[in-house]
Design a protein that fits this description.
By secondary structure, the protein is mainly α. It has 21 helices and no strands. 72% of the residues lie in helices and 0% in strands. It is globular.
């Protein structure tokens, strides 16, 4: 692959993102659906790819587009490799620039949120594996690891789904990556569409504390534009550009975090080969990105200890992450194989429907009973994350709590410190496939482990944190002052 092809592939992604942003600004439907430009751009690239444009041109007798669509096979080869690289950049920066909170403060706010988040994720594994063992394996002759696709695609999102491509291939099911990316797309769309519908329902039924039926979203906000006083700096200059550009500094920190993760992963793989590889292999299948996140946490501990000048800016880290995530999503969607989805359409729809029903049901029936207060504002964040990754949850929380008046944001953030290292692309997500296919563990024992986790999360949420909510609801002060249902 020539350097010119790599450069062209990256430039085309930038052009597609700009075209997608123009579509978002001009097309009202995309605004009402709050579709990110990366999803719109990925859809455009998919339409112009080999499965649609290339096949249509082939039917018209023009065979030069059948392999790579409008962009060519070389560009698609570059795009297919990008998600697995960029996801490590995204995960490495999750905790950089954010001082780790005191345990007591984090536990008080994050406890109910963590119980609910774990309930959603472990439940996705339980439902997915039950569906796989009872239907997908005996009826459709699919491997049992398809039971992990709901959590990988929904909570993990496009980055995790694409980043696990090598793991799926090593497990003998390369089609799993396309199915997972497809589920990530379905989950993201469902998270946005159903999230907006639930917010409208919550406002009408007075389930929300801050938002009311009179609240409106401006045309500029729907178009994804910031105007007037809402504009602000995207990052802070913490070092003088004459010595080192601040963006280069922060990219270097992320690079160190990724390298720390690579050292940890290589060390664990070597230890596994030396001690227990003959019995069970896990780290041989684990991708780099969850360990890159661990590398970021370790680096942040050092920063908290030795950085007296506060040179790490969390907003600058977020800009690097945001750029990487946009490029990741559009390249993952562009290289999605529609043929694989078509060949496994019914199992794909069954898994998608089961995952969506579980998340919606849990939000409506469990969140009000788990959250001590502001259940709608706090639950909608986990609802969005459990269908369409963290960004979707943040968007939905921003709609119901635009001025950050509720504890939803800090509770969600603290919960991520414990949740992210394990689920949504963390160690559990990465280890799920090797554990399911392992002859020493297998699908049924892994199902039992997730079922125990689900039961523990339900008990903690309903009978520990839920008891605090009921006690507050029964207090005379609350009964006299509150009009919330």
């Amino acid at each position: 692959m020539s350097p010119d092809t790599i450069g062209l592939a990256l430039l085309l992604l930038g052009v597609l993102l700009l075209v997608a942003k123009l579509v978002r600004v001009k097309w009202k439907l995309t605004q009402k659906l709050f579709l990110p430009s990366s999803i719109i751009g990925g859809g455009i690239a998919l339409l112009l790819g080999p499965d649609i444009f290339g096949r249509a041109m082939g039917l018209a007798g023009v065979d030069s587009f059948t392999e790579g669509g409008l962009f060519g096979p070389g560009v698609y080869e570059v795009w297919s490799a990008l998600p697995g690289l960029l996801i490590s950049v995204v995960f490495a920066g999750l905790f950089l620039g954010k001082p780790l909170p005191r345990f007591k403060d984090a536990a008080r706010l994050a406890g109910p949120q963590l119980a609910f988040g774990l309930t959603l994720s472990t439940g996705q594994y339980v439902i997915g594996l039950l569906l796989a063992l009872l239907v997908l394996v005996p009826v459709f002759n699919l491997p049992a690891l398809t039971g992990a696709l709901i959590e990988i695609g929904f909570v993990g999102g496009h980055g995790t789904a694409a980043g696990l491509g090598d793991t799926f291939e090593q497990a003998g099911f390369p089609e799993g990556q396309d199915l997972a990316v497809g589920m990530a797309t379905v989950g993201l769309l469902a998270g946005i569409l159903l999230g907006i519908a639930l917010i409208n329902w919550g406002v009408r039924r007075r389930k929300t504390v801050v938002l009311d039926s009179k609240a409106e979203i401006s045309d500029a906000e729907q178009a994804g534009l910031l105007v007037g006083e809402k504009r602000g700096p995207g990052a802070m200059l913490t070092v003088h550009p004459s010595s080192l550009d601040p963006l280069a500094l922060h990219f270097g920190l992320i690079a160190i975090a990724v390298l720390i993760g690579q050292v940890i992963l290589s060390g664990m793989q070597a230890l596994e080969q030396a001690l227990w590889a003959d019995t069970i292999e896990i780290f041989a299948y684990v991708p780099l990105f969850p360990l890159a996140m661990i590398g970021g946490i370790l680096l942040q501990v050092l920063i908290d200890r030795f950085d007296k000048n506060a040179i790490v800016d969390s907003m600058m880290i977020e800009r690097v992450q945001g750029f990487s995530l946009d490029m990741l999503i559009i390249s993952a969607m562009a290289t999605l194989s529609l043929q694989v989805l078509a060949a496994n359409l019914l199992p794909f729809l069954l898994l998608s429907a089961a995952g969506i029903l579980w998340v919606v049901g849990a939000f409506l029936f469990l969140a009000p009973r788990m959250m001590p207060s502001h259940w709608f504002e706090r639950g909608i964040g986990d609802f969005g994350q459990s269908l369409g990754v963290t960004a979707t949850g943040l968007v939905l929380m921003r709609i119901v709590d635009p001025e950050l008046k509720t504890p939803a944001y800090p509770a969600f953030g603290y919960k991520q410190l414990v949740f992210e290292p394990f689920f949504g692309g963390g160690l559990v997500t990465a280890a799920a496939i090797p554990l399911i296919i392992s002859p020493h563990v297998g699908a049924v024992p892994f199902l039992v482990i997730m079922a125990v986790g689900l039961a523990a999360s339900l008990y903690t949420g309903l009978f520990v944190f839920g008891r605090k909510r009921r006690a507050a609801d029964d207090s005379p002060a609350h009964q006299g002052a509150s009009t919330q249902p």
